[in-house]
Write a structure and sequence with these properties.
single chain; 106 residues; mainly alpha; 98% helix; rod-shaped
Length: 106
């Protein structure tokens, strides 16, 4: 009977230690689970904000492309008009010269 009495407290200590270790492991597992959930939520939020930023940047790039095309067309039309203005000025100079000699011809 003495052997049985000494063995029981040891087995109770063993089970007590095992229970404590199990509780510690469960707590660690719960903490890790919460951390993983938080990390997952942060990743989802970051992904959403990044995708909205990318969409905004795409809109800006498209607007810039359109504006660039308009500016190119405007520059082409202005350069075409500048060449016409030079011709008009030349014609006006010729007209003045013609008008200067016109009275002498009469």
């Amino acid at each position: 009977m003495a052997k049985e009495y000494t063995q029981m407290p040891m087995s109770q200590e063993y089970f007590s230690d095992v229970n404590n270790k199990l509780r510690d492991l469960e707590e660690k597992q719960n903490l890790l689970k919460e951390r993983i959930l938080l990390i997952g939520q942060n990743l989802i939020e970051d992904r959403e904000s990044t995708s909205t930023d990318i969409q905004e940047l795409k809109k800006i790039v498209l607007n810039l492309k359109e504006e660039t095309l308009r500016i190119k067309e405007l520059i082409k039309s202005i350069s075409g008009q500048i060449s016409e203005f030079a011709r008009k000025e030349e014609l006006m100079i010729l007209q003045r010269q013609f008008d200067m000699f016109k009275p002498h011809l009469k």
